[in-house]
Structure formats: structure tokens, C-alpha cells
């Protein structure tokens, strides 16, 4: 391609934006940096921040998944929902159904707080399809004494395609928080059941046991009477409690999903996912059927080094085996990053990330994720560019798509690996700090290069999603950042610089891919074919006041990078919970 006609001076613009946000003053002889008076900005209460194709109800608070599932022609999304307001509380199970994971029909709540064993909240749980096809949901109830107990509901009419009504069984609670060392207020979020060679069902429940985090194991013949196994499925002394454990099997290098209750093929690995530290982490290992324990391939004492499902704003995810398409899908919750009073004013808070196909990489070392293919049904007006060359400081404007609702895919190809800066393993302990220190305005050898999204005309507001390439002893390490620090001029927002590293065989793979789904206040990115995912929330003033934003590809590293392929689509609005049946 001919040299870009619109290559702007990237560093200059970025510096301009930086300095417009700070004042440098002299006080008592010292030079100090001061934030300027907050500029007058329009109210955050704007429909324009509501997402167009991410899952959310029409109003009120939502949080984590209650185990989505596919059954009899419909996908079911159950979620933690406050029917009375936009802050956490009064939690019931919201329920929506879909045939395509994109458009959703809102139903009445599936489980409400109306018995002594859930009067203080119907918290997270899971659905299981028992042998013979009986559907069952097990969920955590906060009881009259605010103890966390596990309850069962069954569909009233299993042939109702929407499964609208659920009946609580008389035996509730089926599991109580009893036993030595168990904290009765930290005992929740049962997994989907799986059946062992002895014909008994198993579930794991997140718990605090003797002050430490555990996925407790329970067994049952009939899914109603449960016995706690004398050892947990897995436990760790690194933290006090795990929420939302998820346990599933995967085959290295195979994108097909596995049903944990079906025969697990030789060579399969198991994954234990847990929610802690405001993020979802996981371990890959082996499920020892004889001992009934999960044995991780690697045990890292420092939990900052544990692998993460997503390095951004993503929590309480649950996965399920989609028998319709033979894949495993994972789904997580993304909170607002404005203030609680903003959420009260808006009348809504929380979205769910795009459902992602999840599988294990061929080396068996890490999970990969990719937005479910169905989301592409929203694509419209494709634009594409080939053979762009981005030299140091280049900014290439991506025009012709709706920059507020877009799906962008870019491949970056390095012209040389000679300039790669050395990798320092200590960065792994705090990738956000490294993303702050080595941000998009800091020149590197190879990188930073990536995308600038939701940028105002003068760049005062912008969000970058970008890579840097480092050389470690025998391999390359790629840093992916999603830097929100300049995403908005609004005061009082949480605007971190998220980041994650992945290993990359540059000699073999050559191209580093980035896919970013922009959905108004959501920026969801997939780096290196889904090795690092970063979900983020942003509230640019320009989105409300100017009604638009700009999008660019950029490079700010010494080495030129090529973009052999750039494709972008506008995303049409999905029908998300607009219709109630
Ligand atoms: N939120 C739920 C719990 C879960 C936590 C309560 C995860 O079941 O542990 O709304 O966000």
C-alpha cells in the first residue's frame, strides 16, 4: 500500500493530550503536578452509554452468572439480579432465553427469595442435566440467619421451551454449612454436577475452610442427599475464600468442548477456575478419579502469577458445554466503573461480556477464548485494508465504521525482531503497573503498537489497546495493555491500565492479532488469537456530547510494523431483553 496519507504525529498528539490534563506549577520553589479543575462535563445519565449488543436487563443491577445452559432449543441465561434497584441487594435469579446467544427474550425471575433457606438472597449456582434428562438447579441461599446453604429447584414443566417456572424442593436446604473449620458465611456458588465412575454425582462448592480457600467436594446418588467428601477437590492457603468455582475438561489443541459427565477422552486435562481478587483465575491439571482430587500441573505459591481468564473487568464467570454446537462457552460479568451514586442516577449497573468459546492451547499450558461466532451476525458494512505500514509515530485513522459499535480485527506483522527490549520477569507480578509505566506514549524497540479507540477529536479522551514485544531467554513475551487512564474527562471513574503477558513463538507465528469489540461503554479485546483477553468499561464525554469518536491503528515503537490485514465492521443493535414474554 502507498504511504499513508493520514499518518499523524502520534507522540505529539498524545503528549498534547497528556499536558492538557495536567498543570505544572511552581509552589515554594518546588515543581508540582496538579490535576486541573474537573472540566464541566455532561451527566453520566445518558442512554448512549448503554451497550447495544452486550447482555443487560432494561434496568437495575446485575452481577454474576448463574450457570448458563443450552436445553431443548434455547440458551438460558440466569443471572444475579436486583429487581428493586441498581445497587447490589435483594438478589434473585433473573432469566432470559435466546436461540442465538445474541438476541435475548426477558422472562420473569426463575428463583425468588421466598423461603427461609433463601430469604436473604438467591445467590449463584448451576444447572445440571441428570442422566435421563431431568434438569436441576442447585444454588446458594442466604437463609434467615444469613448462613449460606445450598438449595434445589426443578422445572415445573420441563417441556416448556422457556422453562419459565421453577419449583423449590421440600428438602431444601439440601446442604448446610456444617463440619469442622467451615465458615458458614463463606460457603457458596455450587458448580454444575458431574458423575463419577461409581455412578455418584459430584459438585464443588466455594468455601472458606480453616481460614483458607477451598473447592469443597460433595457426592450424591440422587442430587438431593449430599455427603461431604473428607477432602476438598482442591484447596489453597494463598487466599481465604474462592467464589464461583467452575470445573471442566478440555482437550489440548482441540476447540471442541467436552461434557464433564460424558466419557472424558484420554489426554484430556481439567481446569479449575475460581473467582478471587476481583478477577477470574484458573489452574490446568489432572482430575485424579481414584483420589477424587484435582492435581494442578503447576502450583504457584504467589497467586499474582496465576493464569487469568481475563485481565480486565471480568468476574464470576461460569462455563457450560453447548451440546448444540459441541463447544464450551464461558461467560463473565463486567461491573460499571463509575460511582455507586452514578449507578443510582442511571438506574442500571452491570453487563455481561460476550459469550466466548473457550479451549485449551496445543501446548496444554493456557486457555484461549474467542467471541462466539453468532456475534458476527451483527456485522454490517465491512471495511478492510491490506499492507499498511506503520512507522514509529504513525497513526492510521480507521474510517467508515460506526466507531461506537464496532468489531475490529488487525494482524500486526513485525519487520524485525532485532530491536526487542529485554523482558523482566518481575513485571509479571504487577502487569498493570508495567502498563502504566510503559504506556502508549513511551517508545519501545518493538511496540507499543495497537489500536486507539473511542478517541475525541483532539485526543484528550482516548483508550488504547496495544502490544509490546520483549525478548526473554528462549522466547518472546508479548505484553497486551488496555489503558483507560485517558478514556474520559469525567471525574471519579476507575480508570486503570489493565495488562497481561503471553508467550509467543514469533519465528513460527509471525503475526500478532488483535480483535476488539467496541460497544459504547464496553471495550472487549482479544490478543494473540485469544491468549490474553481484556474487558473494560469506559465513559468518554465525547460519546455523549459529540455523538461520535475516532479510531486509529498506531505504532510507537522503533521498528516498523506491517498490517497485512485490517478488517472492521459496524455492529447493529441486538434485541437484548427488549421483549418480555
Ligand atoms: N456474588 C454472588 C455470590 C458470588 C458473588 C452474590 C460473585 O453468589 O459469590 O450475588 O460476584
UniProtKB/TrEMBL annotation:
Residues 374-570 form the Glycosyl hydrolase family 32 C-terminal domain. It holds the Pfam family Glyco_hydro_32N. Gene3D superfamilies: Exo-inulinase, domain 1, Glycosyl hydrolase domain, family 43. One of its GO terms (molecular function) is fructan beta-(2,1)-fructosidase activity. Residues 1-29 form the signal peptide. InterPro entries: ConA-like_dom_sf (IPR013320), Fructan_Metab_Enzymes (IPR050551), Glyco_hydro_32 (IPR001362), Glyco_hydro_32_C (IPR013189), Glyco_hydro_32_N (IPR013148), Glyco_hydro_beta-prop_sf (IPR023296). It catalyses: Hydrolysis of terminal, non-reducing (2->1)-linked beta-D-fructofuranose residues in fructans. Its EC number is 3.2.1.153. Residues 54-371 form the Glycosyl hydrolase family 32 N-terminal domain. It is an enzyme of class 3 (hydrolase). One of its GO terms (biological process) is carbohydrate metabolic process. The keyword Hydrolase applies. Keywords: Disulfide bond, Glycoprotein, Glycosidase, Hydrolase, Signal. Belongs to the glycosyl hydrolase 32 family. This is fructan beta-(2,1)-fructosidase.
